[in-house]
Queue: 3 jobs
Job 1
Amino acid sequence: MADQNVPPPRRPRDDRGWDGRPYPEAYRDDYASTPYTYDVPQSPAPQGPQWVGPNGFGPATTPARTPGAGLPNLDDGGEPGRTVGRRKALVALGGTAAVVAGGAALAMTPQVRGLFGDDVVAGDATGTQVTDGTAARPSGQQPSTVRTYTEQNESYMGSRAGEALKKNNPAGGRTFSGPAAAAAETPVTVKTVLAKDPILHLARRATFGVTPEVLADIKDRGIDGWLRWQLDPDKIAPTKAELKLAELPTLKLNTEQLRAQRDQLNERGAQPERELVDATIARQIWSDRQLYEVMVDFWNDFLHVAADFDGGEVYRNSFDRDVVRAHALGSYPDMLLAANKHPALLLYLNQNDSRADAVNENLARENLELYSVGVDGGYTEKDVRQAALLQTGRGVADGRYVFRPERHYVGKVKILGFTHANSSKDPKKAEAAIDAYLTYIALHPSTAKYVAQSLATRFVSDTPPKSLVDRLAKTYLTNKGMVKPLLMTLFSSSEFWAAVGQKVRRPMEYLVATYRALGVSPEASPGHDNGDNRRTPFGRGLRQIHDTMRELGQYPMGQPTPDGYPDVYVAWTSAGTMVNGWNEAGELVAARRTVFTYRKPEKLVARPPATAGAYVDALAQRLVGQKLSAKEKSLILGIAGLSAGARVDATFNGAVAAIARAILASPQHHLR
């Protein structure tokens, strides 16, 4: 997979438009992170097959992080004694949360221990370190013997930390008549700090974060009724925030309009590929179609096309709407077929450059390795080359998908047991041959296993039980890749309900869950002054969240390489990310911004109790849906220097923001 060729030129990002010129000062992002701008040296286009390596189409674009970034905010000022206590309390809560999945203690990273002292967190101090071991695959070697994408979940879970997680997995399992029956009959035996409440568990896994409204909906509709409701998202009314998405000017434009209006949009400072991410964030936070949005995010990692690629400004909106969202709860084979005729994927993986006399193998390889059978799915390098020959002719012209018969290879092909004469350049016959092949690999047993493994990793555990993966794979094949039966099998399985606390939120999920927990409203605060900025407060606020996610290292459709983001905890162990997440939670609790409406921390609990211990219980119930353990409660009370029986007012004697922030650093908020 190593790409030794120079990539095509890529345009600068963030404060520059398609032509590379800076936006007018008045229209630049209010909260943009300038380190994300970059240029790639231009060079003549490479000849012959091109390859996508671990760093995508060119040099890695993720900026290096400053060690300890964000740490000053961790102190919150105040007296030295209280500052140290607050810091240690946050680390003891959040540090433990980020390294404890269901009670299986993992090592706090050396970076965290170095920042806060080895005495802060008890437990395993071995300090597991993950290395990627990036290596190119020798031509012709079997894919099962060389790992090409080192950020795949299996690679991470092969570490010592991954082995520790496996020990806390529920063993075995069975399928029940429905989700509610499975929830009622499944005991939770794993070690976890989370409440063993099936309603809370479902809310944590099937949404982007628990809210009082979600819990009330599940209780009112019942587990089965709520899932039926979520699996029919077209019948769920749009929320106020979803209606406000009309304020993002490029979101409603189709590909032709985006191409035609490129110069005008550039002058206005409108960036379609960034507004798509902004809109996705808004839906994750505020949409009532939560399970649908979770699945959209899942497929965006599985069948991944980065938002920030050359062409993303024109084509990524359409790929989101017409490929991912159109099939997120429908048919995966249909999604794969649609993707392979979409300009976004064809340009992202250079299929537009492929022709019979100069074959580009990028798309053919990723169709096998990432989008269907998987790296261990049984294919060989010969299969990749045969598939690349078969797919020649597909490309993009004038902004639309085209088939160019003069570029199509004619001749018999054999790929993973699929055989086709491929004897004609006639577009109908040639395209039928390609579609038959794509359908074949979409319904291959290895694809069923790969989808099942990925889905179980997303919803159940970083190391999902084989019994569940096998059951999901069987459902996938029986139902020809339909997604809803797959989800019903998942939610009707005991393994799902037994896996309470076995997933840690990734950085993006942590931030979205924090917005949801705090009940942030999409309307601007009263008295907000938008000045002469043409972008609405809602649009500016979404861009602020987007840029914060970039700083945390994860945002929707943000992975530059085609493998999507890893979905296991040990891929995200970072002291800087953890602390920056706490700092952002502190900003939200403080409610200093005005682009959205934030609840004041003293208003989070409707009727604050008069004693410190009871107030912590009520605030935890409000923010994470359950009470904290006695040890965690003691640590949090220590931040305010109060005993459980001490009398407090609605502001917790001035410490309510610090208390709320500490709860948001607890395991109960980090775990999902």
Job 2
Amino acid sequence: MTILTPQAFINKWRAVTVKERSGYQEHFIDLCHLVAHPTPLEDDPKGTRYSFEAGAGKQRGGKGWADVWKRGFFAWEYKGKHANLDRAYQQLLQYRESLHNPPLLVVCDMETIQIHTNFTNTVKRVFHLRLNDLLKPEGMQALRNLFFNPEAFRTDQTPELVTQRAAREFAEIATLMRRYGHDPQRTAHFLIRLLFCLFAEDVGLLPDQVFSKLLRATRNRAAIFTTQLAQLFGAMRQGGFFGADEIPHFDGHLFDDAEVLPLDSESMALLQRVRELDWSNIEPSILGTLFERSLDPTKRSQLGAHYTSRDDILLIIEPVLMAPLRRRWAEVQQQARTLATAYEQAKGSAAKRLQGELQQVLQGFADTVAAMRVLDPACGSGNFLYVALKQLLDLEKEVIILAQELGAGSFFPSVSPEQLYGLEINEYAYELAQITVWIGYIQWLRDNGFGTPKPPILKPLNTIQRMDALLAYDAAGQPVEPPWPEVEVIVGNPPFLGGNKIRKELGDAHIDALFKLYAGRVPAFADLVCYWFERARAMLEACTTQRVGLLATQAIRGGANRKVLERIKESGDIFMAWGDRKWVLEGAAVRVSLVGFDAGNEQERSLDGSAVQTINADLRAALDLTHVHHLPENRAICFMGPSAKAPFDLDAETAMQMLRAPLNPNGRPNTDVVRPVASAVDLVQQQRGKWTIDFGLLPEDEAALYEAPFEYVRTHVYPVRMQASRVKYAGNWWQYARPRVEMREALRKHQRYIATPGVAKHRIFVWVQPEVLCNQGTLVFARSDDYFFGVLHARIHELWARRTGTQVRDAESGFRYTPTTTFETFPFPWPPGQEPPGDPLVAAIAAAAQRLVELRDKWLRPPDADAATRKARTLTKLYNQRPAWLDKAHRDLDAAVLAAYGWPNTLSDEELLARLLALNLARGGVQL
């Protein structure tokens, strides 16, 4: 191999003035000799991974994508001496995908080698090697790394880290400005302008570092900075000169005026510090979220918290927006290549006609992509919209590259932010959504070699509106549905707000209007996100949209929430879902469901990333338990415990004082109304020793005869009941808000009853004495026989409960049991009340249940254990450990219960559920 010294290389090429085409291959070969690296022909004679004129085999000849290419190392473009290397770099950016996205993009004019990093998810860097640099050890090492070790150019800094730091710094500036009493929204608007100026300067939209120069020149003279910045804003508003620099026309409502809020010296110092960041590399998919937290005082605490990543957002954007386009693109590519082959072989008018058809096919698909309108009806600070825009732009770039490869000409991307529609009620998020989209668009054009938008740089995005997406009022003051724009695709992450919290968060008037407007379509107290699902479903039914992809709390799979998914299945279908997936909401990790649905046109279905035949309304693909029947024989057995909604509970000392009091004027003791109370915690974890005052259904005059309890309630409960949020219970203020009349009647004839937590990781049932009142967090069963207890505690019933109940957050947090969807649909071996007396199968279940309870009680309260040991032992801990003896007791019980059904003990979970479903439908009168 020929060896060349740095000095000999410099002497040769310093004097060369030949044009690029005449000398570039010899220049590159000399570089190979300089670093002792094989030339393309020496290393790869076939040119499949290392070659000159990479991609030169295009239709009708034509120059390759790069002058030199080495797979996994670099793409290299040459220009003549003193040529515009930026233009060469833009060319490489357009074609890098065709060259397998090499980590380094190199441009060279035979005097300067410019190395641009192209690593995924790292801040882009530029290195310059000039002829004289090759005389230095570090210069030669950089050249060797280019050929042998491209990883040496990688930086650890990521766009996410840059964006996080920028948001933290801006939060400090926002805090300082709020000290001076500036209006929060005016402050936010001003800071977003500063943000954009920093970005615009680093991507070259503001010329000659004009903003940085202004900062440096006035860093200790804030008043002058304010005056000068107003002039710069004025120039950005309409275009014009700022000093000797010509400023492009920006507009876009961001520079709708030239207002500048005053900054103090501390704020100026912070701005100078944040100026040092590389704003060209901020990450748009998280930009809006992080800056909303920095500008909105109510979200400042979330600054260091997690955020939704681009990869998570793609779980919705790809299958809902992009999948149909990609399928169509595969067909278009095949059609285009067939035309291109015929065009290559044709001559004269035939060739011209085929070229025209080829152009029409590719331009037509590009027009289809550019016509896709996307709505996020709860767009927040715009991250879903930005990711949708980027995916559309990336797809259109594939079309542009193929058109150039096949000789069908070239064109500028026509996908634009104007295709994006958003609805958002928060003023900070609304403004950030627009700038997030524009920054992302400008950044994409720059990073892909398409320059900058034509002036005005920022066009007003009137497609993003600040409004309530669910509720408006007509001229008569009546609630109406606000119109949503007609689009092809709806995507987004609507707000999660549990049914019990909606009224507290949004207020009585708002919620009453919402309930009235959506009555019959969304169950009252369903999660707030369900209203977005129903609105989107209605748009599908009205043919004003085509596909929808939304997030919801994973509780949408069951209970009242699931009704909206059932309506979706009635009028269309679900084609994509993730039933239970980690997500980040307001900085916190939560569990969500992702749901993609349409009018029933999509033929391909995917659940949790795998292809399936169908997706049920419970977001499962197997057995559909969403249409089970409520069995009449199961009614009036299972009840939710009474709900107090006021401080009726007592500590043990206060309760004992009442219980020791003399008889009341009615001759009755306080034990009539002062009772032990049990919550879910008391049932399966620590017993708290709480008591409660329970007047049941007594009228006020009779309740008042229990003197001490009544006075306690009048002192502690009455003021609460008179509050605006509780005044609806004021009529019977001395009673529990929901005393559960039917439950009390059903329990009256039993000497004990069964209870279970409403929400629990393990479905555990316990015996409760009749004097104990189980509250709203529990479910109680008006049965006192061991057989019934045994069936409830069997595996078969727990399987049914898990599939018909709803998961709270994750599996560890537990699932919800309900009297209706869970218990009233469960088919017992015999309908309750119809068990054959004396049947050995019934006796076997009762015996197994008794044995289970006996063993558990001995473990919970060993006779020789001290108080601390007993206190540490709980049913939850026992079932977490599930020792061998407990497992055997349950297996014995399971076998006895399955024998009562007449089913073998070897059935899988799905087989058991299938048989239970068939039994439910048969008892419900459905022909199988």
Job 3
Amino acid sequence: MAPTPQPEPARFDYVIVGAGTAGCLLANRLSRDPAKRVLLLEAGRKDDYHWIHIPVGYLYCIGNPRTDWLYRTEADPGLNGRTLRYPRGKVLGGSSSINGMIYMRGQQRDYDRWAELAGDDRWRWDHCLPYFKQHENHWRLDPEHRAQAGEAFAALHGHGGEWRVEKQRLRWEVLDAFAQAAQQAGVPATDDFNRGTNEGVGYFEVNQRAGWRWNTAKAFLRPACMQRPNFTMWTGSQVAKLLTERDGTGALRVTGCEVVTPSGRQTVHAAGEVILAAGAIGSPQILQLSGIGPAAWLHEHGVPVAHELPGVGGNLQDHLQIRAVYSVEGVKTLNTLAGRWWGRALIGLEYAWRRSGPMSMAPSQLGAFTRSSPEHAWPNIEYHVQPLSLEAFGEPLHPFNAFTASVCNLNPTSRGFVRIRSPRLEDAPRIMANYLSTAEDRQVAADSLRVTRRIVEQPALQKYRPQEVKPGVQYQSDEELATLAGDIATTIFHPVGTCKMGRDDDDSAVVDARLRVRGVRGLRVVDASVMPTITSGNTNSPTLMIAERAAEWIVQDGR
């Protein structure tokens, strides 16, 4: 029998791996030049699942193989041996299709620190701010609100870009009371978490448009990219490995990739660059499967070493949220509202009629940034406060009225890793977060629970007679509270750092300040994995800024 003929390699100028937060923006920017052929690869399906677009639909997208990679962490000593569900978007739009929709840049000091670690002042806050504004479309700068927003606000925010930022479409009496209690405990009120300092308490602003989720596929692919003849997108297509060769000088170059598509394996060639935008889990996995990474890890699984880079997959950082639950009386919460059939019917009718109410909710509505103890020079903890409670994500709401005050350490010192567990792309990598593995992180965990108690003790909340359900008032010492944090804490879905950027003298750096993989030509990483340190807040919008910057450099280098 004659061998089956192999299809001719597909040829493009740029191949973008991952149609998530960064990949969708990159596809938009790089395909603006009609002379450049751009291929966008996405392992997941199109974002045509209705629960992606209804804000509360994250409940049905996380843990759903249609939209989620279904990762789990390794058993973690810091969590007293527990493993955690580790959601990552496997769908067009990536994690922007299943995340909490919160628009948050972080703090100025985050980017100034990146500049120091990367040895490049272009990462300082003042230089990054224009790239946040470039794609932003903030509701307060709409014509009807522009005069009230003022010039100071306009100097910090953008309008007319693709990335819509809106205020939430509901309020809760119990959350208003928490905000008042936080102010009574010394946390100032704020109406803008994105000025470079996010200290304060207020309602989060969200990436929605008129009550619908606004993901990056809507923002950057439709309609612009879809109408460009030089743009191609393949869904259901997963990269098995990068293709490499040595040039006449012996330098390693990535020339394309091998892709598993619904119709079989396909070779793709890139005349310009391959850009990994597969996220903090996917990008290091692809590098390792391609023989780029720590030699010992690769040898252990029989992967030939193409280029040793010790930092690939290391430096994993994440925000671990400690969920304190308080029962309340005399005030409405989602627990009992959604616990009755007529309540659920009213919720559905309100959303159908006005695109508001609980179905328009982000997972967390109220936020606060403050210090876990006075010696911290800046806010080092973040609250996500919710008018509901449950034992664990995906389980039923409690049958009593309650709120949850989830608090996370913004700048954890614990570091984990992502490692392939086999040379097969079908096998999910090992994810070891090493939460609470340092004395500093355990101290912040204990102190932050005390801050929560101090807020709840204030007069504004006392009229609802709050009672601590979790972790429980019987736990008081540092060691008790840190251990209890390990029992009740969960990820807030912000993994970063596994392909970190750094100076040439940093052996653990994977990419340089322009996000080019060290020692490999034609390859760049552009996603949250390049962050050397985690931002002091939610990570989706910083990832877009990174992609905006990288797109400019890729275009410059391609001329």
